[in-house]
Structures
1.
Amino acid sequence: MARRPLPRILSTGSAQIARSRELARTAADSATDVLHPLITITRGLRRLAAAGRRKWADTPTDKHGPLLFLVASVVLVVALVPYGPLLAVITLMAAAAWQGRDRAPAAPDGPDESQTERLKSLYEALVPYFSTAEDPEPLYAHGGAWDKVFPEYEFDGSGRVSHLAVRYPAYFPDGEPEARSRVEHLLSAKSGRGREYHFDWDEEGNQLTVTVLAPLPTDIAAQRFVTAPGETVLGFTDPSEVQRTLPLTHGEERRDVPPVVWRTGIRSTEPHLLAVGQPGTGTSTLLRSLALQVLRYGDILIVEGGGTGEYACLTGRDGVLAVECDLAGALAGLEWAAAETERRLIAVNRARQEGSPPPDDTRRPLWLLLDRPTALGHLASADGTKDPVSLLQVPLRHGRAAGVTVVVAEQFDTLDALGDAVRQHARARVVLGPATTEQLQAVLGAPPHTTPAAHVPAGRGYARLGTGPVLRLQVPATPDPYDDATSDAHRQAVLDLLPPRSTPVDEEPAEPAEPESEAPAEPVAEPLAAKAVAAESS
């Protein structure tokens, strides 16, 4: 059967609607231009009426009679004078036009004297970087015109540059990181220290755009984030860097904030994470934040090498297999994790060969969170035992297929003590706290597009997932609830997210419940260390 064509009103409806909207917009603009005097006079009459009401309200009650007599006398005199009403109407319209005028200050046509001096200083400072003696018509020269190279510029309330577009000659090596770094350092120093600048290099158009970034929010507390299974929120970044927002609560306030989401699991390209930072920069906060998110659907094993008790609030909670702070416990836990990874691989492979789904005991994710494991490595070297970091090779290499994720937090001065397996397989990277451009590039693999600040709050840094862009990062506030310096709001936010405590595996209930039937009771689960010994002996 032949297909009927669409009605003309449907086939050309969108074009007609767009044309109608354009005509309506043009008519509205024309009407506004024609009726502008009437609009101004009406606005002035409204302001004069409001001023009259305020004057009447401010006048004492005992003077209302004399004021009315004075107004009536003026009206009578104006009515008796020849052409008085006409002159009164003209005077009233003139006063209304004066009161209804647009009082917004006119934007200046150009920068003022101080802003001009600042732009000249920037221009002169860029001359050695963007000029050469062989250029017959140099764009940059001492005493040259700065307005030719700065087509766009904006200043903030303090008179410092907030936005700047810089043109540069085509022969400048903008593809070399060293040349870019020198120019970025100069512009950030001359435009004002203590702020973070974003540099956007347009290599095709030979133009550099400098923008001052707003500080990331530091008042976001730990909470349940709206994420899919296998997604964890590392922190929050700039709205222009990601295309996704998360609804968050801050007291009674609701707002949407762009997150940095890290995806783990079988199809993840960055299944493991390495976080680097100095003490007090928020690496332990990041690990606590990840632990609270993972406990909703997985199990975690924590190894704390610093021995500061940062994870005592997680001890004995549902889903927390162990929190090991000594060398013996860390070795036992990581040996069990390596054996568990191998067991999961064998079970999954056997199920695939049989054409059946993976077993249920291999689907629940297992996370290994290690905070400063190199400190335990020094103890192991002194005792002549195995380094705990060496036991991470199996979980790192085969963790994605087995549902095992490894997160390592370390400091800059002991970063070289980590094994090659951690540096090769932990392709998701986070750097927290103040760091130089060289340190950021060594850890992240690429320099950031912003200037690192010298003083940053805790949990502030950069993140890069695999070969993706380098993003600014602010970790949500997840402090230790047992710390006395923690605020009540943040402490309560963490306590609300903690799962309930379970009975320790090495203790029995005081009064065991009688079984309903005479079926043999299930054996009590062995401690984690016993599991490791059994796995090693087998």
2.
Amino acid sequence: MSRMTRGTQVPARWRLLACGLFLVASCSVAAAADAGIVDVHALPQLEGAVEDTSRPDPYRVEYRVPTPQAVTLQAVRKLLIAEGWVPYVLPLEEKSTTLKFKKGRQGLSVHFTQALGRPDQSVVYYTTDRIYSNVPFPDGASDLVFDGTRPYLGCIAPGALDATSAFYTSQMEAIGWRKLTAETAARWTTAALDETVPNGVRAFYDHPEGDTTQFYKQKPVMLTLTRRDDGRTDVDIRIAPFVLPVDLSADGDVAGLPRPNPTKTARGLGSATSNKREMSAAAMAELPAVLAFYHRELAARGWQEDGSAPLAPGDDVALKISNAEETGLLRLGRKYDFTMVSLTAQLKESALAARAKAKKEADEKFMKDAEAMARQVIAADEARRKVQAATLSDAPLSALADSKTPVPLPETAEGVKFEGDGGHLEFSSTSSVKALAAFYRASLKPAGWKEQPSVINQPNMAVLEFSKAGKSISMTVMQMGPKVNVSASGSGLVMAAAKPAAMQEVQAKSSEPLKPDPESQLPVPTQRSSTSLSTTKMPGSEMPFRRELAASIPAPLGDVLAFYRAELSRLGWQEKADGAAVSAERAQIDFTSPQGPAVLRLGRAKGETTVSLAQKNPDAAAKADIMPKPGQARLMLGNIGAKDASLTINKQTVKIAAGAGGPQSPKGPMLDLLPGTYQYALRMPGRPAHTESLTVAAGDAWGLMVGPTGEVLPLQMY
């Protein structure tokens, strides 16, 4: 991904960050030149389709149809099946609304959205899927579950056992698979090729290197065919057990509980300090290996096994566990080619009581220590104030000559700051609070100002309130160290001031209509003092997740707002009726654009209008698997340093391995967070903890990349 500002030099650390939190790069070879990639532009489309050609992409097609989403989904499914595409579902994703299809070596993903503001219309997206590990589907098979990255296939073939076995014997060989024999399997010492299957047959295959189909090097697979009572045949193809890991290592903890490596998915609830915590995962290993992992890891963490628990549906193993403070339950079962893990831990009543007691004692001690410290600070501050007050003068004050302010200034006034348009005055003085209060009472009363009573009238602070003819002035006079600070505001201080030269220039320029810059990717006037455009995208892809334009324009806010409303409307952006907040000094408007949601923010600074225009692309974010869950934000972690790091945020500690999310490694860990501001702490060996804060909003995706020197670089991805 990249985030670059036009016209500026990019620091080295951002170039490193641009190498990626994610390194799933798109292939640059044209789709038509790769027999494993379908030409999505040649696929059939529904009647009445209107294709979006604004963003040409050889791997993706988008078109709109005049039917609701639910109707469109079924129609597309029927249309593609008629063209020979076979539908299937991914393991553990049976409820996904994305359709998956396979045709020979080619794969296809189809997903749908409702057309913007039109529930009677929907949008269809065809996206290519590369099948890295191809296995044949029997004609007419049902209940197809397939993953072309391992591979895994589970289905029901319509034919009898003998016919299905003959089909696989011929078709596996036709696409480059070779049936393993004792000689060809000699390198795997634990391979048992002669094992039998009750009421079925089993065979093992490998895929030699250098085959003409240009597959990636594949692990051996195990084909199991089982005769069904209805005359059909169950088909199961998975990675051969003898090449799967036996001694599993520990991955990063989830909710403070151990997780084996490798896992396909994992989720947790709670943390190491929670009263109750849960962890579930789909481990890519056989059940005995996963069970051995937990025997070892739980024992190393002080857990003991307390016998078996009743089995729930889907369980093969259920163990009661406990340690000094908690009781728990470990459940293991098989689903597809995964070992499904469920591990829960609950604090004992005695531990809950001990924690409550310890917290109460710690809170009481904290309060006592805080009170004692406060008394010391107050006493020291009082002594310091007395010493400082002794240096302040109580001498009567005269007014400063040639003052341009609506109220007089004392002769000892220093660092005067006056804002006539906002009605604010501030200065400091070496005179005492008593002398300054007396000065303003004596000088404002003859001018017709009437003082309102105030209860704050102390040697180190006084509040003065004056009124006259519907106008008011409020003054705070406070001792601040060796000087006294005076701050005043109110309608009685408002006065028209001569416009500085810079403002006069702005007004002169604002009379010239704002013209769009034809070279800019997002609208911006040619009359600007500065501009920058930043994008975040995946390496190898031209489709950004997010684009943001920042500019400073020497024109009134109203003119700039009118410019953007006109230009964005011309580009097909639609302003949300309930997403606008406009005032004289700032504006924020939410839009829906053809690419996705967008927001325009305007403000005023240094006599100019500041612009922030950000646009998101949900399709690109979904394709890269960085789309936050509804109502939440997503945080992606990476580490381009040479040492492992750990980051604690929202009561969760996540291990970030060295190189995770870097150019030569897969994605780093990801967390889903509720909107808000979070403190996070980064820890690396040999370095002190580094603490920062991060504010995330619903729908945001942020990346936190650990740099080579231990710094954390935040970047809004989406």
3.
Amino acid sequence: MPDPRAQQLAFDELDTPLYDTTFVIVDLETTGTSPDGDAITEIGAVKVRGGEVLGEFATLVNPGREIPPQVVHITGITHAMVYDAPRIEQVLPGFLEFARGAVLVAHNARFDTAFLKAAALRCDTAWPNPPVLCTVKLARRVLTRDEAPSVRLGMLAQVLGAGTTPTHRALDDARATVDVLHALIGRVGNQGVHSLTELFDYLPGVGAGQRAKRVLASDLPAVPGVYLFRGPGEEVLYIGTAVNLRRRVRNYFTGSETRGRMKEMVALATRVDHVECAHGLEAGVRELRLLVAHAPPYNRRSKFPKKAWWLTLTEEPFPRFAVVRTPTRDALGPFNSRNDATDIGLTVAEQAGLRTCTTRLGRAGVHDCPPAVVGGCPAARVSEIPMDIKEYAPIATAVRDLFSGRSDAVLRAVLAQLETHSRNEHFEAAARLRDRAVAVVRALARTQRLAALARVPELVAAHPDGAGGWEFSVIRHGRLAAAGTARRGIAPMPVVERLVASAETVLPEGFTRPPERPMPLPALDTDAPGSSADAVPPAATLPLADVPPPGQALESVAASGLPTDAMVSAATDAGTAWVDGLPLGGGFPVHGGPPLLGGSPEEIGLTVRWLARPGVRIVRSSAGYWEPVFGAARWLGWAEQAEAAARSELAGAEYLGQLG
């Protein structure tokens, strides 16, 4: 008779088959019903796989307290029996090792796991949080009331023909639960439940209509991709991504899906379309683009796909901030709400001295807002006498340099003001300014990080697929232009060349392309084991200076390959000069377009996160992938410390409130 394990599986092969799943069936005897006030007196466990017993674990446990007479009457475990037994701190490590890597099964699992977790807490032992299966819940799902009026272990053992009779002793009850488990698994197997995932999905109740639609997932491949639920009129109801299309879509027709909106969507769905993708980044990007194209009603994220706000400098002789939908060259964002953008603008304007008045001023005009003790136009605090356009220009330049990363002078001014508040013991004012400064740093860092990728005409990156191969992405101005894979044994560079040749053309908004000089890279190792070219070289990026934290002197960066401070000033005065395909000056080039060059912030953000994953390597880059030396990224450490201080203050306030 052929081995059933050698036969082709008819279900998702990525799920663990039930016959290949290791279960540890456990039963406890205790001094009572409270995990906090009572203790374990006996542990019994049986390890099984494929219907075979692999081992047993049984021991009495000294609870360290008296056993109530009524409990002695039920279990037969007396104080004399446990007097010389080991304490739980001696027993628990051995049990956890016995159960390691297995699915924990118990009859009324909530009771047993609660006692085990409480014991682990008292022993200062980390709870491994294994998957837990309750035979009470499974029995209620499988058996009718007529067949089993009660789901007590004794009744189930009798109804299902268990070979062991429960005796209220841990090992006997665990052995009886093993027989009950096998009988219940045998019954659900007739309903198409063959894997561990399917078994967990089967536990909650599912309507017949919802379960009947499971056929919609039967033809989907077990690969990464995007799925689209369609309604009776072929309209798109819902869009999602999956590492495994078949498994993910199938879950919508099981009890694991508890969201009311999704159950309503499934009831309307008539079919499921899909798009196979090379890897997770392509799936995520395709999902974002499809959400914009279809705006499906059951995707919350698609309700307002273009409702972001940007903080931008106005194009007028005396610039000021405006909050707009469409970003300009000097913009910061995007923000989810207009208020967030406004708050950031007010903070930057106050520190930089940018005007907030709404008076229209021509090139021949002057700014003459009167100074105010509290509030008022920030520009009036810079100069008490009227300013003409030449005197006002450095203020706007400082803001532009802050946004582009050419200078962080405004942030240093914030730090200086914070120190002044602290020295004067104005702690509440310092805390408010600190929190506002953190918001500015976070917004700047995000925009500069996205813009860093958006300005690169072409970047090819690779990530190991975990099986000796590579996942490739061709990224042009922050947008995914092509995606592919090279499995182990396939030379990667020919795959890269084909992807680049067939990649989507990206036309950025307002970008002046610099002279492209691809950075030299070492050749791929064509003698690596497993393929003729089994490795991708490390990322080739411009070495940045070791930037000190804010408040310390910045050392010369000439040795690192970056321009010196004098060269930065010269480049700023003369405009952007390009050297080896890189802008001279340490900041972003003046290209005339918005920060993201018309790209989607969500898509570029998704791509940036993919590039930041461990193991990603840059195959080649047309103009270098870097962030500005004086950008907000160097302030993120300070921002994290400030946020930790704010959380500590909040916790202290809550504690004092509870005492009061």
4.
Amino acid sequence: MTTRRRAQLLVLLCSVGAAVAEVAQPFVLGRTLDLLLRGGDPGRWLALSAGLLLGELLLDSLTALCTGRCTAGWTAAVRSRAFTGLLHCVPDRARDLTPGDVGTRLTLNAADAGAAPAARAALAASLITPVGALAALALVDVWVAACVLAGLPALALVLRAFARDTGASVAAYQRVQSEIATRLLESLDGAATIAAAGTTARERARILAPLPELAALGRRMWALHGRALGRSGVLVPALVLAATAVGGLRLAAGALSVGGLLAACRYAQLTAGVGGAASLLGAVVRGRAARARTLELERLPALAYGTAGLSADGPGTLELRGVRVVRDGREVLRADALRVPGGATVAVVGRGGAGKSVLVSVAGRLTDPDEGRVLLDGVPLDRLSREALRTEVAFAFERPVLGEGTVAEAVAAGARRVPAEGVRAALAAAGADGFVRRLPGGSGTPLPAAPLSGGEHQRLGLARAFAHAGRLLIMDDATSSLDTATEHEVDRALRRSPRPGTRLVVAHRPSVADRADLVIWLEDGRVRAVAPHRELWHTADYRAVFGAGAAAGTPAPRTAPEEVRP
């Protein structure tokens, strides 16, 4: 049994113990009062009453302590599972989730979901009190018990309506919370643009636009809670009053003692106290709605890996056979019999939305095609083990996530172990060694303390990809923040690398496409042509891909002969 399960069980046991002590007290007090009125010795019953009272206080304290531990443990577990699901999912499948929505699910929703197990245990125990009190009341006087029992259905209907109406309001409230968080993070990301444009007031209005809806939903939840408490606040005293009246009549008839009347009145209060479960029920309802939101992250589709490996001498030949990718009912990529020779540098070219990022994601198995297969050196990617795939296929992205370690740790982080000399060589290949040497601690400088520009940040991402490059290196717009000279140096360093491999580069500049051995030209998700850049350059549609800077009939820049791959 896990620690959080034990904590939940302790909450239940302590709550049940406190409920039993609470139910036993009226009977003991009634017997004590009867003995005092009759002139008997109440010493033993007084001691028992004091013991029950102290026991209830102690158990209530333990319940509070265990509730805190239970809530903390479940909240951590919910967050960990949701975070794991998010990290392991197919990246394509998580793109519909905005950062604000994800942040809300991992913080507020996870906290509400983590509080639900303890609330459920306490709610279950809270039902023991009215049920036990009703049973005890039947033993004291069956007529008073019948009077109380007649009013319980009304209280049950109040709780049922509260649970039903609150559930819908809570789900809507959590959705609007996520929307506001998303808009806020979008504004923080573009804070400089907003300040420069002088649109702060408009942006503030945009962020807070859902606030009236959030306020209305919040007021509705409080109104529902207040309505439930108000109705139970009317029903409970009326029920207790009716039970007291019946008990008084039974006392007058000689069928009930004074102590019995005291116990009956107290048991009537405890039985009618089922209405006090509204707060716990509200916590359970909130937790259930929040758990549904965190489960969506936890259950995001993940890639399944095989057990196969790759031969040690494979050149890195990449093949796409009958590949078809569909998103939202629209075909975004179709590639059949597309072959990238091992050891070649191939540029992927196309207008925005042509399917470039989809193609490289499929080629490196960040996502699986809906149809067809992708093979690396003759082995389908979906048959490779995680270790084989991630050690042989490396990615470099436009906006790499480097973490919070040192510069060297960021470059070395990955599927394979990279020694210090490998880190230095990768930094040099990415053109990052110069600015890294100028950092306060060199490559040992913590990233939060390193003032990096966009281009420098991107070069560190390139360095990490170079350090872990196996037989296939995929660069998805990974040089967009580099100036032309630095990009040229990076390309030359790659060509002189002692580690051979295939390189798939998403290209937006004609110079990058020109330095590649082949170009895969995509148009509307289809492969329009596969040929060298200089052959394609004679096509007006191809030149138009690079925009106005590529004038018709003007050949693209050509690198020096010694820099061209033979």
